[in-house]
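Help wanted!
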Amino acid sequence: MNADEALIAYILRLADNALILSQRMVELVAAEPELEEELANANFALDFIGQARMLYTLAGEREGQGRSEDDLAFMRDEHEFRNLLLLEQPNGHFGDALLRQFLFEVFYEHLLDALTRCSDQGLCAIAERAIKEVRYHKRHNSMWMVRLGDGTELSHDRIQQSLDDAWRFTGEMFVADEIDISIQERFNGPDLSNIQKLWRQDVEKTVAEATLTLPDDQWMASGGKQGQHSEHLGFLLAEMQYLQRSFPGASW
Amino acid sequence: MSKQEWPLYEVFIRTKSGLSHRHAGSLHAADDEMALDNARDTYTRRCEGVSLWVVRSDRIVASDPAETSAFFEPAEDKIYRHPTFYKIPDGVENL
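Answered by r_m:
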């Protein structure tokens, strides 16, 4: 894999993360416990859809085979998606969805921060724009972590369980493969071991403030970044891609 | 399970620097911090402002509708309080 191919694959990973997470969040529209939280969630989902669109467009341009953002989002199959396993997990209850957002967005903020200093101008510009959105998401997620963790006995126990359940999906974020290393070395991209340290510090701080306990080190699931997904992604894609597959090129 | 409603907050937005905050609407939130976040997410989605105030609705002291006549009617016949008796000098445009 040459440097350009690695860069396209890397941009697609970022785009898939944003798209799959936004699709999960969209499922929560009209299902949140409070109207105001509902709007916040929908806003955040739109932020991710915006990021996915920019990233898919950039990947399509770099690839040079005429694939549009829609082609990349709707016409690829499950094994071609490269999103993290954490992001395709079903929403569960409010605490489960919150933990997924929290654990990912702490990582994502540091990743975007590093990408603002990468040598690819297109990716740099998207990262600079996205990080402002993600900073606010993180503030919102952290607030809920503390609220529920340091809330009632019931909310504390439930969110601790959500943290324990999500933990096995966090390892994948920091396992650098050929593509990650290529981006780091050839494009001055993120050093995942450094990002892991920063992530751990932030997560520990919020978890302590929320009076929760970090899970012990354990077996970590992986494979999403390489296209090996859990059974949940297929169902998600079936719903998300149905319209474009049935009516190719359909638009509003 | 009975659900306890979060308290009501009033939201004020300053649309740009130099203007004053204006009442935009209300929302529910568990506390002040959440109210500010919710105001941001509910009322500034389309670039409506550069500054937000939130205040609990029950902390606002309001005039009593029953006392409208005592409160406001005495001002109605005090036309001399309006600056309409001044002559505007020629050449003054922005008054």
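OP: Thanks! One thing I noticed: Residues 106 and 203 of chain A are 7 Å apart (CA to CA).
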